[in-house]
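User: structure tokens for this one?
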Amino acid sequence: MPKTILDYIGLKLTRLSTKLKSAKPDYKPFNSGDNVGKYKVYRRVNIKKLQVLVGDSDRTTDITERFKDALPLQDYIKMDKEAFEKWINNIKQKDIKDIEKQQEQFEKKIPYFIKYDKNYLWQIFYSNKDDKYFMLTPARETENQALAYVIKKKLEDDKSDIFVPICKEEISDTYYSGREIEDIITYIKLFTNQWPEIVEVQDGKKNTLYIMGETKLKDNFSTKYRTVIDDIVEAKNFYTVLKALYVLATETNYLYKFDPGIDDKGNFTLSYNKEVITIKNIQEFISNETGRQQGLKYSLKNEIEQNKEKIEKINEILKKQSLIYVKQEKQIFEFMNCKKSVLKRVKYFFSNNKKVITENKNLLARLNEEKNISVKEIKEKEVSVDKQDYSKFADIFTVADLVKNSVEVKKISSEAKGLEADIKVLLLKQENMTRKTDNAQKYLDEIQKHKKNLFDFWRFTNKDNANELAEGQAQGESIKKRPEFNYDEDRDDLGIEVDSLQRQKLSDEECNAVFLAKYILPALNAIVTKSDTYLIDECYDSLKENLKNHDQYQSLFGGIGDESDNIKKLKFKQHREKPRDLYSILKFNNDTTLEDFKETCRNYGRLLNEAYTKISCKYDMEIYYDKRNKGFITATINPYELVENDETEKIYKAKTTAENHMLFFSNIIMYNNVSKTLPVGMDETNEVLLKVGDIKEVNKEKINIIVEKGLFDVDIRKVTLIEEAKRQ
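Assistant:
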């Protein structure tokens, strides 16, 4: 085994090999500073042809100074061999081997998302003038295993290539100009609300462009994407679709909203009404939407004319109602005035106003019949507008045509909404006036009823029981909006809240029941629902099978550990509590029979039901699960945990409210709290327990999500997302 790094890489300082000879190329950097993590270009560089320079600097030093002070490798070594030997021997052999292993992998396949760990070590630049690659090693850096690797390969006369990022290199114009690259970044940022990364990979003479990033999907899901551009026609098509949809979204003030996603190959896509827009269907989409907007424009104009007629009709009725109400007020005033003296009462009693009251009553009846004519009953009239047959021009509609029509529709729609608001106000006013006239008429009818004899009339006028005449519409009670759960912002608060609640409301035995549900839920469900009883036998057999391992652990430690074993951490918070134990709670041992197990499950099934009715939380939440069964199910508040499961094909989304019951696998469920040191929260899992029951499905949608399987491979999961109706 080599004693030093010099021995491992085969470097002899007493006689430098000519294989290490390097020349300083002509290079003028256009900007300064390091660009770690922002490499735009990756290439395969031949090690044998790579020039190696070393400078007394670090990566943060201005690049102009770094290059100016750097020396070719052989000159830097000769300058101070002892210092170089000390410096190079500080490198760890394991770090060099890690690079060797990594580059061997890169010979077969490049990383799926191009970037890889510690890619900043290479510090390789390209001189366009000399057509040479050179490595500019910063001697002040502590990580210089890349230099040792290059020296080793050069001395071995290795003619292989290394896959590395090229510093300060811009993307070529093979597929897009610099302006178009900036456009693509702007377009994708609009739709995803996150900046994409565009990287060019040059492998031999072939250039490939990778457009990568992450986007949110519907229903709290998100996914990475990777669009590969290796064809000029393909590049043009991608840019055309992206630009067209960007213009549509922005120029129509986001009347058109496009949903980002990925296809079954991981490429970035945009959809409208669940249909992916591609170069093949974008012309049809634009033509259909332009036609739809023209038809909508005509329909809205027709609706506006109808609403104007409706407003005119309502105003006419209001005017008639007002005239009737004025007459009613006059008659009521006369009655109220007669109560001031005996003579006025007698005079009013013998006055003949029955005819006027009856006339008003008949007018009100006719007016109510007229008022009840609905908008649907108003005969549609042909509106005098420019109605063009657009179908024959469908093949030449452009984005500009669609934008123009959409903007016009939005303007007309605003007018239509204004008229609808006016109608609502007038209808409310009409309803209030109806209440007033009806109340007034009832009061006048009551007066007439008591005018049959003077004694009865006299007694009636002495009462102070007049109905209120100006009764308006009662205002609805304001509804307090409940907070909606946001996983990123509310996760920790939720954990603290539900753990505190479960500590307060659940007994220790009920906590045990919830804990058991995490491990033997099929058996508990079978007991409670009295169905699928074979699951009880399966759980019993599984517990018996694993009992031996459990006993070995218990016999080894005897429930006692050293002080460090007793101290545990939950989210950086220390405690001295023991996890709840499945076998201890069940009192399960070698002598436990199947009947004993069933009886225990019966008891804990009852406790689980009792616990379930005690717990809910303040949030309106979205809960996700992948399997339905009778009784309880285990679900999660983080849908990605289900996506990572290879077997998941369907994910159900349940919308729960603050009134819905739910149990949480919080800290008090997972641990005992004998020493009272258990941190408050939900730090072990995102899982919850709830009942499904008969749920109505309101939406079903297929989504694709990239799940990374390491540096080189990904799985593109095709998941059907099934949305349930909101639980009451």
